[in-house]
Every structure is written in structure tokens, then in C-alpha cells.
Design brief:
four-stranded antiparallel sheet, 4 strands, elongated
Length: 118
């Protein structure tokens, strides 16, 4: 069984490693949408994979740490591409979510990154 929960946050960033003249070298912001996927067996008694509230309790503090922040100022996000952000989030939550199977991070409605761990 696969379950998921969605989160949203707003953050600013710039990409310091792109060539001069690239529009993403300038500071700008996104409304990011994160989907957290867990995969596991149904608990025979509770009939769920995990309590959605417990999932939220793990992810919410990480989201609060990056919401309305300049991502470049956060350790590990000095070059905050969508790909780097999704890996960083994985690194923050995976130790507390052993059933974590995939993260999907959208920085626009049509662009994003999917990460399934190493």
C-alpha cells in the first residue's frame, strides 16, 4: 500500500552556480508543493500504513524551517535547485520515517523533482 500527504511552503532562492545572465541567478520565489509517499503493509488492527497526523508531525517542523526563508542561507541548501531541496528534505525526514519511499517536489505547476532515496 502507498499513502501520501501533501505540504506547501513559500521560499525565496537564487542559483549561484548558473552562468551570468541566467534568470535564476537573481533572487526569486516559489510556492513549493511537496508530496511525501510512504509504502508499507496495512496494520491488521488499525487498517492503515501510518497515522497521517504522525506523518505530519515529522514533516511539519522541516517545512516550518524553510517556509518564508531564503533557502541559500540554510546549511546544505547553498545551491538550492529543486533537486537539491528534495534530497535535503529527504535527509531531514527519512530517519524518522522508515516507510518513506518517495518525495515529489514541485517548484512550479509544471516543474519539479522526484526522489526515491539512494
Amino acid at each position: 500500500m502507498v499513502i501520501y500527504k501533501k505540504f506547501a511552503f513559500d521560499s525565496a532562492h537564487f542559483l549561484p552556480n548558473v552562468p551570468e545572465g541566467h534568470k535564476c541567478k537573481n533572487m526569486h520565489g516559489h510556492t513549493y508543493n511537496l508530496t511525501v509517499f510512504l509504502e508499507g503493509d496495512l496494520d491488521t488492527e488499525l487498517q492503515w500504513v501510518m497515522d497521517f497526523k504522525e506523518l505530519k508531525d515529522v514533516v511539519k517542523p522541516v517545512i516550518e524551517r524553510i517556509d518564508h526563508q531564503l533557502l541559500n542561507n540554510i546549511d546544505g541548501l547553498e545551491n538550492p535547485t529543486a533537486e537539491r531541496i528534495v534530497v535535503w528534505i529527504w535527509e531531514q525526514i527519512q530517519p524518522k520515517l522508515p516507510l518513506l519511499s518517495k518525495l515529489e517536489l514541485n517548484e512550479t505547476p509544471t516543474s519539479g523533482a522526484v526522489y526515491e532515496g539512494k
